[in-house]
Specification:
It is a single chain. By secondary structure, the protein is mainly alpha-helical. It is built from 1 helix and no strands. The protein has one helix at 25-36. It is extended and about 50 Å long. The mean pLDDT is 80.
């Protein structure tokens, strides 16, 4: 067996998907959060029970 060096780059998978939509940015962003959070399911159809909330300067004032 040949030993290979295990680095983070060797263990990382990057997937990019570009989708063009005809909807306002806030509607698109809300739909994306729904799909990645509560709408995300395991292969057998069970919910992952995650909630992803928007944050940042656009949604809340900076308190720093």
């Amino acid at each position: 067996m040949i030993a290979t060096e295990q680095t983070l780059e060797n263990l990382t998978l990057t997937i990019n998907q570009e989708i063009h939509v005809q909807a306002p940015l806030d509607v698109t962003f809300a739909a994306l959060l729904e799909q990645l959070g509560p709408g995300n399911q395991t292969p057998d159809g069970k919910s992952l029970n995650m909630k992803i909330e928007p944050w940042g300067r656009r949604q809340r004032p900076f308190l720093g």
